[in-house]
Here is the input.
Amino acid sequence: MHALRSVVAGLAAVTLAAGAVAAAGPAAWAAGPTSRVSQTTTVGLHNTYDPATFPYLAQALDEHPGLIELDVWDDIFTREWKVSHSNPFGNANNCVAATSASQLYAGGANKNLEYCLDDIRIWLAAHPGTGPLILKLELKAGFSSRTGLGAAQLDATITAHLGAAVFKPADLLGAYPSLDAAARANAWPTRTLLADKVIIEIIPGTVEEDNPTDTLWTDVEYAQYLNGLAAAGTLSRANIFPSVHNAQAGDPRTRYADASLWPWFVAFDGDATAYVTGGIDTSWYDTNHYLLIMTDVQNVPPAVPAGDAAAAQSRVAAMAAAHASVASSDWSTLPTVVSLVDDRG
Here is the structure.
């Protein structure tokens, strides 16, 4: 581990060349429960709701990932939050109508978002001391506030079904003047204090980003919502950390014309290959204690062969050295890798 990090640290702007990634060896997983969540690297599972991968969402949670992902659609006709990859008006997922831990692995699936949240809450309660778990929401087509499916309504759904299990923006903020100030002061709690908790991040969806008529994306809309709540003294209603989506050199928050929104972004989410081979100084995220979710880490050249646990473990070590908070992947068949927690940086 230390040898790998020495090699990585010597590369300009902490950029990992393909050869350096290939050379990463098996890691000694040293991160402990007293480490702050900002100082560790965990492994995420992409599209965790897919029933072709896990018949039940609880089976994905059984692998103890650091992050799971749900794709969410705002169904403007039924005014419901649907969970599927490509159907905006129907569910295609592994969430069930469980009311107890014994029901998490039985019954019909394809349920609305609130049932997925129930599954997470029930599973965490049945596995005390687990986590923290990052829940990534990709809002495929964005919010639809005009039809009653806006940021406030999504927050209300989360509150009703996850409740006290959520670590909220207000919890990080504390007495600091902004989320950015709190993050830079490393006010994130330890993993022990965040056990049994869910940290929720949200990103704009692929449909929204490809829609030329959508001029208000999820990240901006939720940050505006946070601004409004803070001004009204009701920030505790918010459950979600908006993420700056897609890798970019420098401070990617400068893409937002309204600078008053910048301090609300302390989470960043983008393609791992772009981060580690694109000349981006990822140490900036670590220095400021921001959460950095790197996606598709298995595809960073050279790609990790399917089912190769040793190569996957080495890739996580490389992503930890490159300052990722989460190394998100498709490694659903490698539970010993999915459950790893490493020191970040």
Notes: The chain has one domain: 2-48+64-83+132-343. Residues 21 and 318 are 6 Å apart (CA to CA).
